[in-house]
Design goal:
Structural class: mainly alpha
Helix content: over 70%
Distance between the termini: 64 Å
Pfam families: MmpB (PF26627)
InterPro entries: MmpB-like
Strand content: under 5%
Order of helices and strands: H
Protein name: Integral membrane protein
Largest sheet: none
Oligomer: single chain
Keywords: Membrane, Transmembrane, Transmembrane helix
C-alpha cells in the first residue's frame, strides 16, 4: 500500500448503519431466546 493510496475507511453513514444492524441483531437474539424460555416455562405448567 502506497502512502498516496486513499483510506479504506467506509463512509460514516455506512459505519453507523452497520452498527445499528449489529445492535438490532443482538437485541433480536436476546428477544428470541427470552421468548423460547417463556414458552418453555408456560409449557411446563
Amino acid at each position: 500500500m502506497l502512502w498516496s493510496d486513499p483510506d479504506d475507511e467506509s463512509p460514516k453513514e455506512l459505519r453507523e448503519a452497520q452498527d445499528m444492524l449489529r445492535r438490532l441483531g443482538v437485541i433480536m437474539a436476546v428477544a428470541v431466546t427470552a421468548a423460547m424460555v417463556v414458552a418453555a416455562l408456560v409449557g411446563l405448567r
